[in-house]
């Protein structure tokens, strides 16, 4: 007697298999198909070369050739042979149909396989979209600080620039910040410490950008964005502001917050930032132009002394273009020998009132441009510093001046200048091997080390430990060292003993009032006495009148320099000047 319950259950199972929303295939271990439901037929038919679905391995040969070997190598009596194997249909895909199949194969026993086939096209597309979103997010995020990066800022700015201007005059602002003297932190503490400092700066910027009362809508979604846009450069985008004044107040708050010390390696590190600001009404047509203009304003802030915010003005763009032209021409000048050296005499101020005209000279660089003529140093020295050309410029002056000095010794003998002063740059002093360069130049020209005086500005010598170390190395060679422009930098008379210098050059801002201001005479006198107590000599710079010369001579200043004695002279003119005296 037939068990109707079993028949009904079997028919229900068959109905389920045929109506299942996934493809089901039962096959032998050799791939011979025993059963497949309509869904599997629909999904696999595009892969059947001859329209036959008799063998699962043969159908999948082109898209999953490894499946036959995987099954043969599966030694267990039962288990999962493969699960979720993605099969790209490629040319076999019908238009609008499945593009990717997902295949799982289960070994039921020693003779049978059960395979499931599903359309994985939508799932693959979702995965690709998630990956694309993740990649876009990563491409817009700075890896170190996890802040938005330059691309994110440009995208945000472009969206904001595309909006219609607000009727009430409100708008948005971009602030571009660069760390002042960040390289010195890296050099002193290492790059890892520098990276931690950048993370702290980013965190402090975000913490400072609390929803301020100067926003039109403090809850606006696009109200603010803080980003890292370069090595030590950060940007802030502020939206929903009433005026540029509101942006400037936020800028001041940021600068104040960032000026506070950062804890690093158990010590407090002070790092200040220079900032350029562009208000939306002054912005160019594109996000790139706005970011460029903010960077230009930031450079102006650095040129003004740093640690401040300067708002962009159109004239800045013209100055930046001119500096770019000068930089390009200066690179060419170094190659085409357009640079030359002139020499300003440094005279001895003897107590008896006599003047020693052969005491020394200071080497100064000049540039004879083929179109502009002689370019004043004030127009190209700072450009050389900002563009990284100052090192090459300084080396040119050192080599040229030492060569001329050696020629003077041969031509004039005892009447030749006894000392050659050459200015140093931070770039030269940052080179570990630069003292060896000095030693080689001296040897090539037959000069004694004590005939060369290397001059460094007060602010550079007083602030940088690396520079002081390099100065000690130069002093060990036997050259003399001078502290230039004393009185304008960061050191003081009380710290003068800490600097490895032999000569103090008193800045012209003091000397020009030496004959009219008792205050300035006292400052000069104090400098001379402290220098003498330390075994240092002094030079008064910028002497232009006999009265000024008499005043500094009365304060026992050892040497003087200025237009009263001579303007800077080319080498042949210097020889004539020395001969007539």
TrEMBL record:
It comes from the Bacteria. This is Bifunctional diguanylate cyclase/phosphodiesterase. It comes from Massilia orientalis.
